[in-house]
Each structure stands twice: as structure tokens, then as C-alpha cells.
Amino acid sequence: MIPKVVQPWGHSPTPLVPRAIIQKIGHLEAPHTFKNILGEQTTLSNLDNTVWDYIDSISSDCLSEIVELLKQHFNKFKYVAIYLGEPLGQPIETLPFSTRTRNAILSHPERFSAQNIRFNDILSVPSFGMRSAIEFACVIEASVANSKTIHKNSQHQSNAVISNTAFSKIESLLQIISAWAIGERKVKLLSEALPDPLLEWPEEIRTLWDDIGSIHPQDFAGDLVKKYSVPFLVSKALTLLDHRLLEIAKKRICVVSQAATLEELGEKFGISRERVRQLEKSAIAQLERFHNKEFLPVIRRAITLRKLLGNAVLADHGHVKTALYRAVEDFDDESFDKQFVKALILWLAGPYQLWHQWLLADKNIALQTTELFIENSDNRGVIPYDTASEILDGLGINQEYHKRWLEKIGSFLNVDDGYIYFQGGILDKAKILLKYYDKPMTVEEMLDSIGSDSIRSVRQRLIDDPGLWRINKQNEFVLAGTEGYFEYSGIIDEIIQEIALCGGQAKISHLVEKISRVYGVKESSILSYLNTPMFVKNESGIIRIRDSESEVKVSTDITKTAACYLTDNRTWCWRVKVDKDLLRGSGRLLPNAFAQLLGCNVGDKIEVITEFGTIALSWQLTSTTGASIGSLRQVLHHFGANLGDYLFVKATTNKVNFLHLEKMRLDSTNSNLIRLAMLLGAVDCRSEVEAISKIAIALDLRNDSKEALFLESKKVLASKGESELADLIQKPKLSIDEIIGNIGCLFK
């Protein structure tokens, strides 16, 4: 069976068979009459008919050689449309198809048994694409050419037999492939657009595949290239937008950062904000037309860009510039605004948004990274490197950006065998490090990872934290309760040991002399330690260690404590000014009376509950300064506090709430009475009448004499050592009687 040959696009007549081919056929083992009939010149159609007329007297080997000679001369993919006039006579199972193609054919045999097979029909078969169609054509033709026993009247019966098959549209197939290769893949040879042949394919199929790859697509694409041309389709879609919609798309929709505001665009067009919003909605609807089937080549290019960039990529990386250049390199500079085209394709691919110099296709990807890392950490809090890489790959972040992405998030620390979640204040991070390394660490070792350089303040905060133990003079720390370790309190321990050596009590002068000489500590420091609640001394200068029966006498009169005031619900609050130390997480000395309200007494280390987590309180027996409160940085961060602001800590038993007073708001208040009320905890005070009421509550004034109100306020503030606040009390513009009349019976 010989393929019938036609000129391109199905025109006739059929071409002449070259004389050299006729001579070669004449020397084959063919009948003498066959040679004579061919003569010196004949057409391929005539040759085809002659072969069929003498088919019974031509050997199968001779027939195969004739076909091979014709195939070598005629480029089948340029001229030949395969037409099988009779059943092939071979079951599909015996043909050298790939598994994918064979399964697709067997699942829809009716599509492959028609007299004239249309490529649009077989391309609609599931899992049967361009690659399978080309393979199908190659296998059929190769099977015809290499068949050794082809009989004109073969009657092989099978449901899976290709019978009366016609491939008259091979050039139509080539036109589609070529248009796609030029329009979307921007190639000069089909081999640049097609995948490599598989090694398991028969050799003749791989040879045919290589032949296909050598085709120049521009010879076949024709006008069909517009169907796959991304520049043509983008231009076509953008013509649907008028100048206002196009400007809104450029300035507000297809942008990664700093989109124009509704007001700015409204002023430019001379329309209202609401009208701009309506036009924006219309522009988005028009741009979403790119998802219609007609514009799928544009979407495929956007998908390609998304695969290259991933879901998170550094905006200024050369990889991004290269990918964007490739995405628009076939756009003409004179016809297109390439910067906008880049932005448009980025929008279709994501849309991408700029976040701290990163282009993100998903604004929640940082949070997703943190959640997945925590979820997949082991019992030590470690996320192994392999697991981390799998998570980031799954989130669509290319491997070259893994390390820098984690650095940008800032929530994880790179350790020996992976990453650990490393968030919170200095104390939180110190505990994370101690848990991971499971060994004593010095302050300096911890600060190498934490990043703070204030060793002294950090060391004191670690000492005060109830969740940590200092275990030696070298200031090494472990988690409280770690087996095999005991808490060490420094010079205090040396004093205790010396008192024990002296029989349980010792002279102060002896302790000062020996401790200062042996350990090089200043005498004033030793005297300061001897005045802590740890020790009891008598009038003779003899000191001993305090036992459980010895009462600790501490002044806890909160009414005389500076910066402590009553609130509306008769609970107390403590005012603290926001400074640099407080902002960076340092603790703060806590008034002893206020500490006791929170349930912290001498010798205690406790944690109180707040809506921002727990906060440590400490009042050690060895403390020379009294009670202290741990880091308030999380609270300040929540309120957005700045230098000079005030924070009010409101106390209830084992529970703490907070109020925030901005310096800017305080400074903008003209009334000294309102300023005073704010500084006493009434942060929302609005009028002088209200201020007098709040001041009276804060200072717990119950004097029946209305005229004595201001004098009493000054007196109470002076007793607290707050004379500067007392100076704010001035007689208001209204008379006392008028003000008291407004606030009713508050002072009765």
C-alpha cells in the first residue's frame, strides 16, 4: 500500500516521480511488464495505480523497497497526506504506540475508524494531545511502509482495528503546531518546541520524530499564528478598554506597589471617587476576559512566568528581570508599553504584590510558612533541613530563595540540624536556645544568636526571670528545674557560706573585710547585700540568715507610693514612662506595694496573666532594689507606643490590664487639670469638670470641704514625692461651687 501524494493544501495534480526513482524501481525484482508500464516518466498517482494492478506479482520485499524510495524523496510532512484505501489489517495492540497513546485510542476506537479522520476530533480525546497525534501519524505510516504481508483484500476482523483510515489533514496538523510554536514558544525549528522522543519508542518512530523537529514552522503557520500570538491577543484585549479604563489598569490594578488613590484618579479625570471605583470594577471585568478560551496563550505565558518566579521572589534579583524580559521580548517597542505589559502579565500570573522588596503571589505566604514550620517541628522545636525544604517547595518558593526567605521572615534561627522557631522577647529567645542546646550557656553565648549587645541589663533580666537559673559565678544559665543543676546567687552565696563557717552568725565588719579581700568586691556592694531581706542584723552589728519565722518588714503603704493611683472601680494602677530601655524589652523596678497587690511578696518569683501573655514578677530575698517586673515590650508593641508615652498597669489579683497615654495627646491638652487627670490614669479625660472628678478618685479624696479639694490634692501628691504634678493644680475658670454642682454629690 503506497501513500497517495498531493501538493500542499491538497492541490492537484500529483507530482511527477523523478526519473532516478523510476530507474531504481525498474531494477527491483518486479515483473518485466511493470518496468515497461512505468516508462521514463510517470506521476505518483499512476505509480500507485500500477502497483495495485500488479500487487499479486510483486513480492512484499520489493513493495517495501518501493515505499522506502518514495519516502526518501517526498517529504511526507510537507506534501504527503496519508490515505489508506483499504483496512490496514493490524490490531492496535500490535502497533508500536506508547502506552499513553494506545490507551487513548482503545478508550475511543470509534474516533479512529472513520473513512476520513479529522484532527480536531482525535485531539478532543482525553489524554490525546499534539504529541500523541504526531506519534499516531508516524506509527501508521511506518507500519504501512514496513509491512511485509500487505494484501489488498485483507479482511482481519477486530473492534480495535484501524480500518478505512484517512489522514488527509496532516498539513492542517502541522499548521496548528507551527502556529503554536511561533506564537507561544517563539522558536525557529519545531524541535525547540517539542519534547525529546522517548527511548522506549521504536527506532523508526524516533527517526520520524526527528524529521518533524527539523521542520521550519514559518513554512506552515500562515495566518493561524495570530491565534497563538501573545502580542496580538494582548493588543486585541486591550482595545476593549477606553483611555480611562486603560489608565486605571496601569495606575491602580496592574501594580505591585503604591497604587494610585481613587482621589488622584478622580482629579485627573474630573470625576468622583465613586465613579473611579465603578470604572475600576469595569476595568477588572475587562481584564478578566484574558481567562476566556480565546486568550489562553496569554494565560499560559503568565503561568510560565509564575513557575519561573515561584510564589515569593526578590524583586531586584536578576532572575526576575530575565523572566520578565523573556515574557515580553516578542512585543514591539513602538506598539506596546512594555512596562505595562510586564505588570499585566505579573497581575495575571499572581497577582504579585511587593512586600519588603519581595514579590509575593500570595500575601499570606509568610504566615503559612511560620504555621507549617511550627506544625512540623520535633519535640525540641527543630524543623530539619529536608523538611524545611519540602515545605518551602510546597509553598511554591524556588530553592535558591529558601535561605533568604527564612531570613526575611525573621521567625527562625538556623542551627546545626535545621531551624528553630525564634520569636518573642530576649527572655523567650534565651529559653528557646537553652531548650535546644540542652546545656548551660553564658549571656554572651546567648546574645550571639539573640543579637542584643546590652550584656549587663540582659544578665539581670535573666537572673530575675523565674523560668531561669544562674548556676555559677561565670553567669551560666539553665532552664529552671533542669536536673543536676542548682540556682546560684553570686556574692550572696559567698556571704551565706562565710556566716555558716562562723557558726551561723558573724560580725558585719568581718564579712565586709573578708568578702571584699577574697572576691575583690567593693565594701559598699557588700553592705548593700547585707541590707537585703535575706539577712537579719541586730544593734551590735551581728548578722545572721533570715529563717522562716523572721518577719520581713517592708513598707507597703500604696497611698504614699509614687505613680500609684486609684481607678473608677477602686483598683490601683501604676504609671510608667516609656523610654528606650522599656521599648527594647528591659524590665523595670516595681513599687513594692504594687507588687504585693499583684500577689508578689518577698522571696517570690511569679508570672501574672495578661491579654498579651504572661509577665514575670520577681522580689528576691537577695534583691537590693526590691520587686521588679519583666519585659513589657509585647504590650508596647500592641499599643504602638513611642518614646515619651505613658503606660498604666492596672492591678487585680493575679491579673494585669493596661492603658496607654500618647505623649502627643497629652502635649496637645491646654488644661493643666485635664493633663493631671490623664497622668493619674484617666487617659480619656475630656473636660475640666470630669478632670476634677477623676483626680478626686485617683487620690482617694473624701474631704467634705469643697474649697479644700485643691489643697488636699496638692498635699497627697507631695506625700507621694510628686511635687511636679502638684504644680499642675490650678483653680479652674469656673467657680468651685459651679464645678461641684455639675458633678453632683460625688464628694458628699
Automatic annotation (TrEMBL):
Give residue ranges for domain RNA polymerase sigma-70.
Answer: 261-287
Q: Which InterPro entries match?
A: RNA_pol_sigma70 (IPR000943), RNA_pol_sigma70_r4 (IPR007630), RNA_pol_sigma_r3/r4-like (IPR013324), WH-like_DNA-bd_sf (IPR036388)
Q: Name one GO molecular function term.
A: DNA-binding transcription factor activity
Its GO biological process terms? DNA-templated transcription initiation
Give the highest taxon in the source lineage.
Bacteria
Q: What is this protein called?
A: RNA polymerase factor sigma-32
From which source organism is this entry? Gimesia fumaroli
